[in-house]
Amino acid sequence: MRILSLLSVGVFALSSFAAGAQTAPGAGNNRVDKPAPPQVALTPPMGWNSWNFFAGRVTDKDIRDAADQLVATGMKDAGYVYINIDDTWEGERDADGVLHSNAKFPDMKALADYVHSKGLKLGIYSSPGPKTCAGFAASFDHEAQDAQLYASWGIDYLKYDLCSYREGVMQVQEPDDKAAQMRLMVAAYAKMDKALKTTGRPIVYSLCQYGWDAVWEWGPKVGANLWRTTGDIQPNWNSIYSILNEQAGLAQYAGPGHWNDPDMLEVGNGKLSLAENRTHFSVWAMLAAPLLAGNDLPNMTPEVRAILTNREVIAIDQDSLGREATRAYSDGEVDVWTRHLANGSMAIAVVNAGSDRYSTHPFHLSLARLGLRGPLKGKDLWTGKQIRLTDDMPVEIASHDILLIRIPSPK
Ligand code: GLA
């Protein structure tokens, strides 16, 4: 019996490791008699989420189509694993308090089985409040029951969005005490963490409360694998660029298993130009952000697909060191970010936020301000060409475009 149970623990640990690069058994724990629960999100989660394109219209078919497309477009091979259903899947609770999905999602277990059959994982969405942001039933007072339900369906990821918990609970219970309101919020997130852990299923835990109350300081303590650092992203340059700038100063809070989340990708949405899509994707990779595509996968253009599947850019995001980029300096309308990578290599991103190419002119990239000395060999990750960096070299970048370079041996 003992040997059998040891064997099954080993098989469980191995199978959860094989299930995806973003899941691994308890690192550094060689004791098989009392294994640590498998760790998730050792690198930033990658996948797709329904909200940015479908919002409240999403259906079971859209989720199945997205799963099919992740496989067909090569995105799965490039690392995209999670298919996340956002708000508006929820139906009513029955007499026993069990939540049912609504008519758009006739059979959640069957949907999870379908997504798993493609080698992918399924995510879902709820709120600690009585209602979700779109006004559907949420988990208040049903946390343990909902966590068990998700586990029984085979859910692998939960986005837990504050929504009505603020007006419906925090502000009602503690109308005059902001600190007490915050304690209620932290307790609500800790409660769901406990409920998820009790299921025994590895489930990525994603906090969404728009970056309030320095969530990066307490997110890891409530078991979060990622936490939103901002309000909702929009598919336009101003939104993307202002979110980027809000991330300055947060790098120290990110690392394997716990990430800053500047919100889901808008690559391929709205009227973003190719340069803007490229810059958005590149800087999210520099930020070690979750790469959750949010576009219409069945109608994706080849150019957008090429951006989302650029493996060398994805490798920056997924770098095993897990160190987020910092803003090295800004000069006029040009920003320079750097990221330290495993094996001593480094990535440099130079963003032209100005309205035309000539606003960068004559921009000179100062290696000294990055703590480097030229000449250095690097690779331009968008042209694929080798590049030689010299001190104060002139760089000309189109409006809203980026120069993204990987340097194997910086000095
Ligand atoms: C909030 C979140 C969004 C999305 C919607 C769904 O606005 O920030 O990402 O989940 O709720 O209602």
What's the overall geometry? globular
- Helix fraction, binned, reads 25-40%
Low-confidence stretches: 1-21, 23-31
Quote the distance from N terminus to C terminus. Answer: 57 Å
Radius of gyration equals 22 Å
> What's the tally of helices?
13
Number of beta-strand segments: 20
Main sheet characteristics: 8 strands, parallel
- Average pLDDT confidence is 92
| Estimated share of beta-strand residues | 15-25%
Largest beta sheet: strand ordering: 11-10-9-8-7-4-3-12
From the helix content, strand content and strand pairing, which structural class follows? alpha/beta
User: Which cofactors or ions or other ligands sit in this model?
Assistant: alpha-D-galactopyranose
Overview of this protein structure:
- The protein has helices at 2-18, 51-54, 60-72, 75-78, 108-117, 143-153, 164-173, 178-199, 215-218, 237-246, 274-286, 302-308, 311-317, and strands spanning 23-24, 39-40, 46-49, 82-84, 90-93, 99-101, 121-126, 157-161, 204-208, 226-228, 259-261, 291-293, 326-331, 334-340, 346-352, 364-365, 376-380, 386-389, 393-394, 402-407.
- The protein is α/β, with parallel strands linked by helices and 411 residues long.
- Strand 9, helix 9 (215-218) and strand 10 (226-228) form a beta-alpha-beta unit.
- The radius of gyration is 22 Å and the shape is globular.
- The structure holds alpha-D-galactopyranose.
- Alpha-D-galactopyranose binds at residues 51, 86-87, 132-134, 161, 208, 232.
Blueprint of the fold:
Elements: H1 2-18, E1 23-24, E2 39-40, E3 46-49, H2 51-54, H3 60-72, H4 75-78, E4 82-84, E5 90-93, E6 99-101, H5 108-117, E7 121-126, H6 143-153, E8 157-161, H7 164-173, H8 178-199, E9 204-208, H9 215-218, E10 226-228, H10 237-246, E11 259-261, H11 274-286, E12 291-293, H12 302-308, H13 311-317, E13 326-331, E14 334-340, E15 346-352, E16 364-365, E17 376-380, E18 386-389, E19 393-394, E20 402-407
Parallel strand pairs: 3-4, 3-12, 4-7, 7-8, 8-9, 9-10, 10-11
Antiparallel strand pairs: 1-2, 5-6, 13-14, 14-15, 15-20, 16-19, 17-18, 17-20
Helix pairs in contact: 3-5, 6-8, 7-8, 10-11, 11-12, 11-13
Alpha-D-galactopyranose is lined by residues 51, 86-87, 132-134, 161, 208, 232.
